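2024-03-11 09:14:02 INFO receiving multi-entity request
2024-03-11 09:14:02 INFO entity count = three
2024-03-11 09:14:03 INFO echoing inputs for audit
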Amino acid sequence: MIKRRKFSEALFKALGLSALVLAVGTLVLLFGALLIDGVGRLDWQFLTSFPSRHASQAGILPAVVGSTLVMLVTAFVGIPIGVAAAIYLEEYARRTWLTELIEVTVTNLAGVPSIIFGLLALGLFVYMLGLGSSILTAGLTLALLILPVVIVTTREAIRAIPVQIREAAFALGATRWQTVADHVLPYSASGILTGIILALSRAIGETAPIVTVGALTFIAFLPPSPITDQPPYLSFEWLMSPFTVMPIQMFGWVSRPGEDFAANAAAAGLLLVGMTLAMNGLAIYVRYRMRKRVSW
Amino acid sequence: MPTVMTEGKAILIDKSGGMEAAGRRRARRRREFVIEGGLLLAALVSVATTVTILAVLLFESLGFFEIVSLLDFFTDTLWTPLFDDPHYGILPLLAGTVVTSVVGLLVAIPVGTVSAIYLSEFASPRMREIIKPTLELLGAVPTVVYGYFALLVVTPALQLLWPDLPGFNMLGPGIVIGIMILPLVISLSEDAMRAVPMVLREGSYAMGATHLETAWRVVVPAATSGIVAAYVLGVSRAVGETMVVAIAAGQNPNLTWNPMEPAATITAYIVQVALGDLPHGSIGYRSIFAAGLVLAVMTFAFNILGHVMRKRFREVY
Amino acid sequence: MARPVDGPYIDSAGRGDWPKPLKAETCELSFYYGTRLVLKRVSVPIAECNITALIGPSGCGKSTFLRCFNRMHDLYPGTRYEGAIVLYPDSRNILDREVDPIEVRMRLAMVFQKPNPFPKSVYENVAYGLRVRGVKDRRAIDEKVEQALRSAALWEEVKDRLSALGTSLSGGQQQRLCIARALATDPELLLLDEPTSALDPIATASIEELLQDLKRRVTILIVTHNMQQAARISDWTAFMYLGELVEFGPTKRLFTTPAKKQTEDYITGRFG
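2024-03-11 09:21:47 INFO inference complete, emitting structure
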């Protein structure tokens, strides 16, 4: 009797382990396939060329530049708003219906499919506000998209600061904002940074909303440079420029028939996965270091 | 503020009347008020976003439903808004969404639940520490990459088993969606099981139950609502998944329940139209908002259900 | 403000040991968490440049009472004060709605149960109160930091590592750092909430010694769970039970001839 029960236990352990192995293993296998298909195309020419009708001459340069610029807008808009909202919810908000409403919408937005954000952007930014299919539109869209992630992770980081630290500051006569700016934010900075990196890593891979706002899949020029040789040396023309981003470029290549373009897609995929892994790895590293340093 | 030296001791605080000057107090209060207002505005952005999403979807859909009756929308079995003979029945798109999601859940729920039980009840802390971040990492891979897998890796592999499986089909992307939502399902249901208090487990062990019996008869039932919440949130993610189906499931609306056939989902249709060059305000343009509204209502419902269940579960423990 | 003549702090034997001069006093102070009444009309005088100890079993409201003085409860929703805390010499009720809690906190200082230095340098920990008050003069800050660290008997131990993290000090040093931090702004009243409960006997002894030294310059109100400590260091003792003040009197008298049965039971260890 006991023997049989022990046996079923061992059986389940094996089953559980194989389920995990299946889950992780399949993914490893898939990435292996991506690596085999794409690594041959991933060279300097690929990184520095424009798209082309000839798969072997095509490159991803405009997409890399586009992704960078879009991320710039996203970070510039999404991070301050997200962090500020998190500070409000953790440090200021009293239990009112308004707070409740904000919390519900944040949770809800976290679960809204990204393509819905695309439709929002199409209706609001592209047409109503007349921003067109520009880098600015894409950056704002992704900023709204990552808002819940930034808010949730920042709140978690802030919440980890013990209440005794806040009370110590208040007891010395600090105002609420002084307490936040001098203590809460500096001490939770690495946690907030982790959240920001994760949010940006999500944004950089987003495809659907960017398709919806009208990114191009074939683009043979770069946006105007943000730095000019004439005073004031800064130009914001690039904000209104048409663009493409890396996942869109990959999507464009996947959709085209033919082995050659599939190889390009795989190479772009490798680049994307590599960036995601790098950013997530960085986030995990920052979190790990923080956990080692802090002892409240 | 004047620094007065009295008896070798610097007095830095203005003690005239005990309290500080009114001007300074007002300035400080005003600054605090402005800062709090700014932070509140930032927090309200998410409310504004939610409201605007609903407003945009409703506004554009209203234009759509002026031309298409609700009855047609929900009963017509054809979706051909861009043809000369347009039909506007959402059913084919809905069927595509349902079939791909169901395939995904058939993969994610069994594998995810068993993995979660294993992780929560059997795995060593060390193993958990490795697996959890790995899952997080997998959840962060761009969906377009998963689309590539569905079209160029999984479908060809399935074609080895069923040679007459078309290049575009719902089975391949469905399976990939399942793999994609696995990290979410595992992570959330593992959280739920770990939240079950240790004393419950100890009670079961004390009666001579094995690890497995305890996991299955005590932990899983106690965590049910949390686990189901994980499934529900997984469903929501599967329903809203876009790139995988847009790349690998085909672009033709096709009212079928057979996963071996190609069919467009709601999300794939939106992508397809957005890629084209539809004039702003046309019925085709508006149709993607109507489709988006259906999608939004579905995911809102699942999200609310999932979060209510999670909250209720958390309240129990 | 009229002094309640039949308040429980009036020595029942009529021996008239009323502290003088006063730094502060509470007048029928009540406090609510939501609808729960946790302090019931407590009236206690706080003698200037004396140590007043609050004793009582845990949960009797003594920490809550202490935290009323710097309006700490204002930080949390659903709290309400009734009655008054009058601060002298200006005789203002600091619980008044008109009074900004930040102004109150700028006049008083508090040391908490568990040492809670900021994860900043020793120097910045002590300087923070001055910075909050807008002091910019580098020399004045240097001077005050040294003075405060000396007052807290910590200067000799940390003078060579002022830039080390405050959190890297030992438990007793951390608590003395917190005292230095509190002293740097020349508070009129120093509030201590069981400051030695997290410390070992040696660190406790050094802090007790420090308080004896400090009371020449600053009024001290200390909550302690340790009766011996109250008996050792305080001039006045208030015994609280279930949110009420049972007895107030000079420490020596209260511990030798308590006027109330409850006080006697408590100090002889029959409950609490």
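2024-03-11 09:21:48 INFO post-check: Chain B has two domains: 21-67, 91-316.
2024-03-11 09:21:48 INFO post-check: Residues 21-67 of chain B form one domain.
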